[in-house]
Specification:
The structure holds 2 protein chains of 2 kinds.
Chain A: H1 2-24, H2 28-44, H3 48-55, H4 57-60, H5 63-81, H6 83-111
Helix pairs in contact in A: 2-5, 5-6
Chain B: H1 2-19, H2 25-53, H3 59-79, H4 82-90, H5 92-95, H6 98-111, H7 117-124, H8 126-149
The chains are: A mainly alpha, B mainly alpha.
């Protein structure tokens, strides 16, 4: 049953991205940046977790979840380590995703050829 | 002379505007909604499978594995050229999920492969993802420092 919420909320967030594309013609880099900052703000004001408990993957899979875990990592690391945590926490929490994206991109770009130019 | 230049510029701008591909608003909104929803449901499915196989895993760890699987899939689909086709159909639906982040890195790396491994792949893979990581890190440090004082 909760898959319905995942679908509706996840779809709605992606549709917001499409609204930005249609009405402002912004590039995909700006869209991603916008949504990451939205995620950081949602976590900073502690409203990400309540939404996440209902929406689950609907908000964790969009890049908003990436922004939220950056902020969440920084906040919990500050609690544990003080000022140093502000610097280490964000990347620590998202290191898995960033490293995975980098290593898979490296491997697959070595294996495959660009399909856009032919 | 100035007038002529102005006229030419106007004509050129008109020409450019006519040539920019117009996205039809309503169908593209619908497509992005459906594809975005499906990708999120796929993520939920992977997450549920992981928690089913490893019931003792913390939810946060399970999300990390889920995202890694999604990133792998998107990177692979970009490599074989399928993700771009999904992207043409879905627009925002393929950019906003974490798969879009992965796609942006792999597609930039692929596109500049011909410039070599170091200056092509390694340098150019961050053309789109770089700003995302930079703003994310800066914002998270700001949040952490503010959090320190409250």
């Amino acid at each position: 049953m909760y898959y319905l919420w995942v679908f509706l909320i996840g779809g709605f967030i992606c549709m917001l991205g499409q609204v930005l594309i249609i009405y402002t013609n912004i590039t995909s880099a700006r869209i991603l940046v916008t949504f990451v900052i939205i995620g950081v703000l949602l976590q900073a004001f502690n409203i990400f977790d309540p939404i996440s408990s209902v929406a689950r993957a609907g908000i964790n899979v969009p890049i908003i979840g990436f922004g939220a875990s950056l902020a969440k990592g920084a906040m919990s690391a500050v609690k544990a380590k003080g000022l140093l945590g502000a610097f280490t926490g964000g990347l620590e929490a998202t290191a898995g995703g960033i490293a995975a994206a980098v290593v898979f991109a490296f491997i697959f770009s070595l294996i495959f050829k660009s399909k856009t130019k032919n | 002379m100035d007038n002529e230049l102005k006229k030419r510029n106007e004509a050129y701008n008109k020409y450019v505007k006519a040539k920019i591909p117009k996205t039809k608003a309503w169908p593209s909104l619908f497509n992005s909604f459906i594809v975005g929803g499906i990708i999120c449901c796929l993520g939920q499915g992977i997450n549920d499978l992981i928690l089913y196989w490893f019931p003792n895993m913390a939810q946060q760890t399970a999300w990390a594995y889920t995202l890694i699987v999604l990133i792998f899939l998107a990177s692979f689909l970009t490599g074989i050229g399928v993700y771009d086709k999904i992207g043409k159909f879905a627009g925002g639906g393929s950019i906003v999920p974490i798969t879009g982040f992965s796609n942006s890195i792999t597609s930039s790396a692929l596109e500049f492969k011909h410039e070599g491994i170091i200056y092509g792949i390694c340098v150019k893979m961050f053309t789109i993802a770089g700003p995302v990581i930079v703003t994310g890190v800066v914002a998270s440090i700001a949040v952490g420092i503010i959090y320190l004082f409250i």
